Amino acid sequence: MLNTKEIIEQMKAYEIKSVEERYKNLSEKEIKEIFDMAQNKEEIEFLKDNMDILTELVFGGLYMDRDILRVHVFINSSTDFEYNVGLEESSELTESILTEGLGICQSHVFYTDKNKLYEIAKKVLNDRLDDPEYITKYFGKDEVVRLWVENRTKKDVINQLLLTDDVERLLELIPAVAFTTSQGTKVYYSYIDSIYF
After folding, report:
1. Which of 41, 148, 157, 180 is the most buried (most CB within 10 A)?
2. What's the CA gap between 131 and 123, in Å, rounded?
3. Higher pLDDT, 154 or 90
4. What percent of the chain shows pLDDT beyond 70?
5. In sequence order, what are the residues at sequence separation of 6 or more whose Cβ sits closer than 8 angstroms to the Cβ of residue 160?
6. What is the pLDDT of residues 36-79, one digit of tens each?
7. Which contacts qualify for 181-188: CB closer than 8 Å, 24 or more apart?
């Protein structure tokens, strides 16, 4: 007869042994390095209160730096995001922000300068200009008539909007500072309402 109680005890012993093996070679130095990178009080408290995130950072296997830590803690501690992201996704987003000045995560755009938003704006406006609701947001009745009479293409109209209007306003962004990079660059973020993101 199968002794399930004994099997459960064996499973528990196996898990305990696995955990002990995992932490056997972990040094205090590795933990200290992560907390040293978390320079503000909120990040430190978040890591202390979220052992799953701290454990992921310790055993993530990815090269860890201050900027990746900032992105990872910011997204996973913010109520603006629907679900936690893994360390690999945070690392890829960080690289995109640092190299291109722009990144997208969970319908939120991260950017270092609003001039980085123009390519996204072209895609979003291309979609929105098929919707009468947005046309009336962007243009008055007289302007619509003039554009129609002049036989302007959608591409021309998009370029005109981008030249004459604020790109954050066109995208209906409500930018806030997410964090500052290790180089001192402010990174802004905002929800972006578009089928593309």
Report:
1. 157
2. 14
3. 90
4. 96
5. 152
6. 888 788 889 999 998 888 888 888 765 578 899 999 999 999 99
7. 181/67, 181/70, 181/97, 181/98, 181/112, 182/65, 182/66, 182/67, 185/112, 186/112, 187/97, 187/110, 187/111, 187/112, 188/110, 188/111, 188/112, 188/114
